[in-house]
Amino acid sequence: MTVFLMAVAYGIFKTGGFILLVVKGYQGWTWFFKNYDDLPHIYRSRWRYQRRFIFRRIWKRIFNH
């Protein structure tokens, strides 16, 4: 009986993971196609943000010790 309950719990867990994968995949694809024309701008603006803030922090953390 314990093995059966463990198998049922495992199946529910794996089914939930698959459903979550489908939902997140759908959200990602819809975001991608809604923002397709803005993707170069989004990529450049994120790169600019990383260059201005994140890379400086990493650089300071590495070379100030």
Which properties best describe this structure?
single chain, 65 residues, mainly alpha, flat
Outline the structure in words.
The protein is mostly helical and 65 residues long. It has one domain. It has two helices and no strands. The mean pLDDT is 84. Keywords: Membrane, Transmembrane, Transmembrane helix.
* Number of extended strands: 0
So what's the oligomer here? single chain
Count of domains: 1
Per DSSP, the total helix count is 2
Taking the sheet with the most strands, its summary is: none
Unreliable residue stretches:
none
Mean pLDDT: 84
Radius of gyration over C-alpha positions, nearest whole angstrom:
22 Å
Beta-strand percentage range: under 5%
Helix share of residues?
over 70%
Shape descriptor reads flat
**Helix and strand run:** HH
Structural class: mainly alpha
> Kindly, what is the distance between the CA atoms of the first and last residues, rounded to a whole number of angstroms?
59 Å
Keywords: Membrane, Transmembrane, Transmembrane helix
Transmembrane segments: 6-26
